[in-house]
Amino acid sequence: MAGDSNSVSISGSRMENHDHDHDHTNVLQKHVMFFDRNNDGIIYPSETFQGFRAIGCGVLLSSVAAVFINMGLSRKTRPGKPFSLHFPIEVKNIHMAKHGSDSGVYDKEGRFVPTKFEEIFIKHACTYPNALTSNELKAFMKSNREPKDYGGWLAGYTEWKILYDLCKDENGLLHKETIRAAYDGSLFEKMAKEKASKKQK
Questions:
Q1: pLDDT digits over 76-87, tens only?
Q2: Can you tell me the distance from the alpha carbon of 47 to that of 82, in angstroms, rounded to the nearest whole number?
């Protein structure tokens, strides 16, 4: 947990593309590209299931996630296209499916907003500067809630609950670098590799 290295890597990393309007792959797209298992720009429920299994989620959670995520996001990412029972999600339009009551770390175009990311820890990391406890995470989620946005509340809670359960350390802390990696999708690749290496052993 090197606090200084975190701040440096944020300012100089691929995540700070807020001002780069011509970056064809924004950070929100990178966040979901792991689940596009065949890299064709479309995520089907079977791929969502495979992605969740690859990062260590059980069959039940992976199944429920595949159904709700694809059913919830498919039409939003396919404007002007007919309804499809295959519930495909188009990666290039994922910013159109951004739910309410979120942290604001992604802007409306799906770009990363460094100040919003830092704000999470400035406001809520009271015990350790570069990590969130379970209670601090709950307070953070509650602070994001918009009035009567029940769908956004549920989506936000589910996302953060899964991240916390899978990635907290032995002291129950969710580290800043882990959250940052979740935002740009690199965390999922790392988790999948770690799970695969454990299987080989």
A1: 999 999 999 999
A2: 21
